[in-house]
Write a structure and sequence with these properties.
Its cofactor is thiamine diphosphate; Mg(2+). This protein is an alpha/beta fold and 634 residues long. The protein has 23 helices and 17 strands. The strands form three sheets. It has a seven-stranded mixed beta sheet, with helices on both faces.
Length: 634
């Protein structure tokens, strides 16, 4: 008996070419099938859930109207691109999403010709798409359409506004889709408002408009300046009629919307009508994050990446964590509140990650002293610098990978003035399934050269608490604390808050044969290995450096004088990191030990579980064991 297909439409779609064979009335059913498929798949194979449910109709309409992959779709915050992946040849392997050696967690040109640009973080779509639009004009590809899809908070990033500003001032035919999922559709999306949208996006209206412009240009009545002024006037009139303002009315960008982002047939109609228009344009859609799955619609933040769940009842499947060590982020959150209750200068700052970094704990208890500034890492740092300049003590929590966007701000707006800003870098090191755009691999190497910074990394949760306490004491200046995603090693983590002398490391295990120097929680793996090896008769020493800057020179002199063999281990790039600092110190002080550095190699590390990636990088306990044994034998 022939096996019955689960989905009458989706099972027959292997590419957008197949999608475009459907008639317009079939698109609603296809959207329903896609939504069901995503719910079923992500219930057992966790990923970014709510965002993808919110763009089902938009994604279908885009691939239906545009000739992808020749026409370019540039996604922002790539976790909303699951439907895009399913429709572009990856439906049958979507179950491998985010798994080691499976399909990538975010769009990547290395994986598919339909993925036009890397988009692991946010706010880069307009700039990248504008570059593609200009490239198409330069190459004479005037029939190629370029679409930037921005939303899910990414319009709050500064790069988005830089792209908008440039798009308004150079020749291009870019279409920007604003996926606005922060508000519901107004009840009055109909009547005069809908009439206005229908009129301004209709082909007859725009043909008349275009012909009139041509005649006025020939008569020397309409030039570029006057055309831009008319666009601004038109946008202003639309804002009055729509009873809401938008930033685009002051730019030379034609604005359409807002329209219902879940009416697939209307989205397709509007896209068809505006895609041939000359000049930059923006279509504003209102969508509901988590659309079609009631628990996700009600609690979009929880269902952003909910883990496993029951697709029928919506019950999340949560593992029993009683007795386990806490997550580093939760220790941060509780300790920050504890410190803030005693120090009224402390302020919390995070760029759109209050639950991800557990600053929501302070926000709940002290909402007036904790700020979510949106996806704007550079602003978060400079904002913190401004508060610190006038007497406050900001704890600015940014994921390690995302702090890269604020490098200039750290130097110019914090370090030069030695301002007391505490930069807490969550997700440092290898983060797992989110892959190369999210690994916190580079912070140690790129922060180390900056003057006036204190750079630290706790080996466990108790050390994290003590470092946070130390950082908020008087006259400590800019202070960096980096720690990983996931759980620590101390179920009983709530220790007394004590000052740690800046620039001091610790001897964890005494030894004479070989010295192992670690920085951060990876020291726990080294400790497990060394304890086993020493029980077999070896005498290996272990040192927790604790501070990358300033280095513990007394400790390093002691190591340089007593050991001929040194291994350094860090959860960061080998080039320029802690191991490099040790090499420099030994060379500068005329010590000549054999030094072997272990860390993240000089390549972008793929996605997979943290344990799998540690093996790839040679940082798992088996690799540490083998390396130590080999160096002992040398």
């Amino acid at each position: 008996m022939e096996k019955k297909s689960k989905y009458s439409l989706l099972d027959n779609i292997s590419s957008p070419y197949d999608l475009r064979k459907l008639n317009l009335d079939q698109l609603e059913q296809l959207c329903a099938e896609l939504r069901e498929d995503i719910i079923d798949e992500l219930s057992c194979n966790p990923g970014h859930f709510a965002a993808s449910l919110g763009v089902v109709e938009l994604t279908v309409a885009l691939h239906y109207i545009f000739n992808t992959p020749y026409d370019r779709l540039v996604w922002d915050v790539g976790h909303q691109a699951y439907v895009h992946k399913i429709l572009t040849g990856r439906k049958d392997i979507f179950y491998t999403n985010r798994k080691f050696k499976g399909i990538k967690p975010f769009p990547s040109p290395d994986e598919s010709e339909y993925d036009t640009f890397t988009c692991g973080h946010a706010s880069n779509s307009i700039s990248a798409a504008l570059g593609m639009s200009v490239a198409a004009r330069q190459k004479g590809e005037l029939d190629r359409h370029i679409v930037a899809v921005i939303g899910d908070g990414s319009m709050s990033g500064g790069l988005a506004f830089e792209g908008l500003n440039n798009a308004s001032s150079i020749p291009n035919n870019l279409l920007i889709i604003l996926n606005d999922n922060d508000m519901s559709i107004d009840k009055s999306v109909g009547g005069m408002k809908q009439y206005l949208v229908n009129l301004t996006t209709s082909q007859p209206y725009n043909q008349v408009r275009y012909q009139a412009a041509k005649v006025l240009r020939k008569m020397n009545i309409l030039n570029d300046d006057r055309r831009n002024a008319l666009i601004r006037l038109g946008n202003s009139l639309k804002s009055v009629a729509m009873q809401q303002q938008n930033i685009f009315e002051g730019l030379n960008i034609r604005y359409f919307g807002p329209i219902d982002g879940h009416d697939v047939k209307n989205i397709a109609r509007v896209l068809r009508d505006i895609k041939e228009m000359e000049g930059p344009k923006l279509l504003h859609l209102h969508t509901i994050k988590g659309k079609g799955f009631e628990p996700a619609e009600k609690h979009a933040t929880i269902w952003h990446a909910p883990g496993k769940f029951n697709p029928i009842t919506g019950e999340r499947i949560v593992s029993d964590t009683s007795g386990l060590a806490p997550k580093f982020q939760d220790v941060f959150g509780h300790t920050l509140l504890e410190l803030a209750e005693k120090n009224n200068k402390i302020i919390g700052v995070t760029p759109a990650m209050p639950s991800g970094c557990s600053m929501n704990i302070m926000m709940k208890s002290m909402p007036e002293r904790a700020f979510d500034v949106g996806i704007a890492e550079g602003h978060a740092v400079t904002f913190s610098g401004g508060m610190a300049k006038d007497g406050l003590l900001p704890f600015c929590n940014i994921y390690s990978s995302f702090i890269q966007r604020a490098y200039d701000n750290i130097i110019h707006d914090v370090a030069i003035l030695k301002l007391p800003v505490v930069l807490c870098l969550d997700r440092a090191g290898l983060v797992g399934e989110d892959g190369p755009t999210h690994h916190g691999a580079f912070d140690l190497a790129f922060l180390r050269p900056i003057p006036n910074l204190t750079i630290s990394s706790p080996m466990d949760e108790k050390e994290l608490r003590r470092l946070m306490y130390t950082a908020q004491l008087p006259d400590k200046g800019p202070f960096v604390i980096r720690y990983p995603r996931g759980r620590g090693v101390c179920p009983n983590w709530k220790c007394e808050l004590e000052e740690i002398t800046i620039g001091t490391g610790r001897e964890i295990i005494k030894g004479t044969d070989l010295a192992v120097i670690t920085l951060g929680p990876i020291g726990n793996s080294a400790q497990n290995v060394i304890e086993k090896l020493n029980n077999e008769g070896n005498h290996i020493a272990l040192y927790d450096l604790r501070f990358l800057k300033p280095l513990d020179q007394d400790l390093l002199h002691q190591i340089g004088q007593n050991f001929k063999k040194i291994i350094t281990i860090e959860d960061g790039v080998i080039k320029g990191g802690m191991g490099t600092a040790i090499l420099e110190f030994m060379a500068d002080n005329s010590y000549t030990p054999s030094i072997y550095r272990m860390g993240i190699p000089d390549e972008f590390i793929e996605h997979g579980s943290v344990n799998e990636l540690y093996k790839v990088c040679g940082l798992d306990e088996d690799s540490i064991h083998a390396t130590i044994v080999n160096k002992l034998a040398d």
